[in-house]
Design goal:
This protein has about 160 residues and is an alpha+beta fold. The protein has a domain of about 90 residues: Ribbon (Umud Fragment, subunit A). It is built from three helices and seven strands; from the N terminus they run αβββββββαα. It has a seven-stranded antiparallel sheet with strand order 1-2-7-3-4-5-6, covered by helices on one side. Helix 2 packs across helix 3.
Amino acid sequence: MKTIENIILSLLIIGIIFILSTGIPTGSVQLMTVTGNSMEPTITARDVILVDTAETQPVIGDIVSYYYTFEENERLIVTHRIVGIEKGGYRTKGDAYAEPDDYTVSPEDVVGVMLFRIPYFGSLIHFAGTSKGFLTLVIFPASILIIQELIEIRGSMRR
């Protein structure tokens, strides 16, 4: 029984550390979750990507993350592949699309170049951001551990 408890506790700690690490800056390397499907099949919404923010000279073929302001004046980070370099910046395209984006990305808007992706961990992070995910991944396991500790304390008080 103790082995199962240790395994559950270890998985819980690893999961929480991984989820929290996506929001903590780690120098020139940053973990990012993906929300759209514009880069499928290369990157999916179930993936986490590792981005090198120190890379300032991306080349054609690199996958870059950059800031883009949408029509709703919402500034978000987009991750697309560089398909051309122009005087004003970079021409990008999502792998799932036939045509390049209808805008040019200025070098100042580039967050960094993708190093690699971690498949499926994005699903866990997106799930953890929901109320059901928070209950399942944090509250429920923590409650189990608290109840187990209370049972052990009660047992040691009876001795």
